[in-house]
Amino acid sequence: MTEQTQTQTEAGTQTEAPSDPQTEGSAPFTEAQVEPQPEAPVEPKSEAPARTAPRKSRRPLLMGIARWTAAVLVCGGVGAGTAMGITAMERTEVPGLATETDGRWEYPKLALPALPHGAPRPWTDGNTGEVHHADLRELLLPAPAGATVDPKLKGGWAGLDSYLALLPEKDRGDVKEYMTESALRHIAARGWTTPDGTTTRIHLLRFTSVAFSEAYKDVVTRGVSQSSGLPLGVESAKIDMSTNGVEVPYLSVYSYAEEEPYGPQQTRWSYIQAGDTFAVVTQTRKGGTPTVPFQQTVALQAQLLG
User: Fold this and answer.
1) What three-state secondary structure class fits 202?
2) What is the average pLDDT value for the chain, to the nearest integer?
3) Residue 298 and residue 285: Cα distance in Å, rounded?
4) Number of domains the chain is built from
5) In a domain, 111, yes or no
């Protein structure tokens, strides 16, 4: 009986399903545990089967691509048109690409002069008086290439009479008296004549302070507005707009041109107020003074004083 019981026990053990380690503690993740999705209702045959996901229309995408393509083509066309327009223009007509053929003069390479040891430049910390400590003669614009230098105005120190010679005789006495009272320190001057017949004179007047320089600027500009204190030979003047683009920080530029009808020659001149220094740029030429060299000369002289 014992043997029969043992035999039955072994037979029972063989019929039991083998244990699965995954059944201990938690049931295994099988397809049986996933809830079945409800079947989609059957639609009429005339419509697309419900099991097929609806396809999104590509029309908005294609339209967007078309719009972007058109925009790119338009921009490309504008760019190409601009490039063609620039290449078709004369070099002197493109801003920033002008050359000497537009009438400008060929000046030597410019550089600011050295300062005495420890002396600050105007409009910097430690120079509230806006004083030019550099040698005034070295702040004069040099003559351009091909010009004939005036033997009386070679770029050195000049007397007051050299400046007064720019004015009618009737005004020289008053100006000389004013200069004496304003404690004018000294004058440096340079002059030249270019092959086209334009005569240029530059006078730098250094005063004892910026207050005197500004006061003289007020005197001469007010005189021009009242048709008095005009350069020699000038009867009437107008504001010269050609130097409006000359912008140097802390400087003031006032330019004028002799109005028509003028005599055998025309005069243009400019006042540059730069701290303690006052510059007068004068150009004359038979038949009329050219605009580009005048603008160029005023701009370069202003930069040297700035």
Assistant:
1) strand
2) 77
3) 16
4) 1
5) no
For the segment 193-222, what is each residue's pLDDT rounded down to a tens digit? 999 999 999 999 999 999 999 999 999 999
Contact 116, 163 (CB under 8 A): no
- The answer to whether residue 205 sits within a structural domain is yes
Considering the chain, what percentage of its residues have pLDDT values greater than 90? 62
Read off the pLDDT of each residue in 121-137 and give the average, rounded to a whole number: 93
Taking Cα atoms as reference points, which of 249, 304, 278, 275 lies closest to residue 139?
304
Q: For residue 278, is it within any domain?
A: yes
Tokens of residue 156, six digits: 């050195």
C-alpha separations of 305 from 24, 149, 253, 259, 272 in Å: 96, 21, 12, 29, 9
CA quadruple 124, 130, 131, 137: dihedral sign: positive
- CATH code, domain with 195: 3.40.1000
DSSP 187-199: EEEEEEE-TTS-E
Q: Which two tokens stand for residue 305?
A: 């004083």
Instruction: Look at residue 46 and tell me whether its pLDDT is greater than 70.
Output: no
**β-pairing verdict for 252-258 and 199-207:** unpaired
pLDDT at 40: 40
**187 lies in which domain range?**
134-305
The phi, psi pair for 172, rounded to 5°, reads -70, -35
pLDDT at 126 over 60: yes
- Scan for tokens 């295994």, then name that residue: 28
Q: Are 220 and 207 in contact (CB under 8 A)?
A: no
Neighbours of 304 (CB within 10 A): 21
299 pLDDT above the threshold of 50: yes
**Token match 């396809």: residue?**
55
SS3 160: helix
Unique residue bearing structure tokens 């996933």: 34
Higher pLDDT: 102 or 43? It is 102
109 near 158, Cβ under 8 Å?
no
* pLDDT for position 102: 84
Does residue 125 lie in a domain region?
no
Of 189, 200, 162, 167, the residue nearest 283 (C-alpha): 200
